[in-house]
Amino acid sequence: MKHKIEVGLHSVQLLRIAVSGIFLIAGLNHLLQPDKVAGRIEMANNKNFAYLFGDPTLLVILSGIVMLLAGISFLIGYKTKWAALILIATLIPITITIQIGQASTLGPLFKNIAIFGGLLFFVLNDTSNTIK
Q: Quick check: 20 and 75 in contact, CB under 8 A?
C-alpha cells in the first residue's frame, strides 16, 4: 500500500533554496580559491581516494563548475531530479576524501549526510507538479 503525503509548494521551494545554497557557495569557493581547497585534500586522511580521480587542483575546479551549474539548476527547479543526482555524485567523493576517517570533521560529515537527505527527497519524489 502506497501512502501519499501532500507537501506544500513553499516548503518544497524553501528546501530547494536551503540545500542549493551550500553548493553555490562551495562552487564559488572552489573556483576562487582552488589552491586553498586542494590544500585541504592534501591534509585529509583519505587523500589517496581523491588521487584516484586525478590532480586535486583540477578536481577542485571541475567540481566547482559542476556544483555551480547543478546548484543553479537545482535552485530554480530546472531538471531538479537530475541536478540532485549530479550534486550527490559530486558530494560523495568529497565526503569520502575530506570528512570520513577524521574525528575533527565529524560535524561536517553529518552536515553532508543531512544534505544527502535533502537531495534524496528530490530524487525519490516527483516534485514537478508541486514546483511552478
A: yes
